[in-house]
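Quick note —
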Amino acid sequence: MINNYMGEIDNKLLYQLILGFFIGSIVATIVHEYGHFFTAKLLGYDARVSYAYTTWRNTIYHDFVDSLTRDERIKIRTNEYFPRKEEYAALMKRIKDENFLITLGGPLLTIIIGTAGFIFALVNRKSFNGETLLQKQWILLFTALFWLRETGNYVMELLFTVSRGRFPYGNDETILARYFEIDTWLISFVLAVIGFFVVLIIYKRFIPDESKTTFLLAGLVGGLGGYLLWLFLFGPIFMP
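Predicted structure written out below.
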């Protein structure tokens, strides 16, 4: 054991939790992307998962667009009538709605898993009264900490806004907000606040007092390290 200004740190537990946060951040990212992937496949799209994003393609849409004549393409741009305009409008609405569902699939799966872990921890909260936690209890808490992704993403979005001077428009929550025609930042903010309180409850109620400092340090090192190493090193290698 060593001391620092924040209190005692359990070195053995620190290394274990760093590894846990490291693995957890990578697993949460992959699970998130598979939320997009499975939703796209259920809707009949061609989809592919990469280390930090998922792509999907609707062959019906592309076949229809390829069949448009030059004159029809001009009338679409100028919003003029042509015989297949209603068919085109219906297809575009369908694509918009399905893209919404596919975009929703990522954060929704993350939230469902995090919420399930959190509820299960609450139901079994009496078993967390010891000075140390069992491995299965830590695994349960890391499952609940899937919610941390929403808070972490919002912090990254704020940093992006400060550095670039504008709020990012390509993330899932922003796309969902545009679909509902509400403030761009609103969904990100609400989910970040919920995630913060979930993490706060886990920290105050489930982490033993003797492990709180170790937990915070491990979360900073392992969570941030796992995110950056997966995004810039391991991800492009293992899931290009």
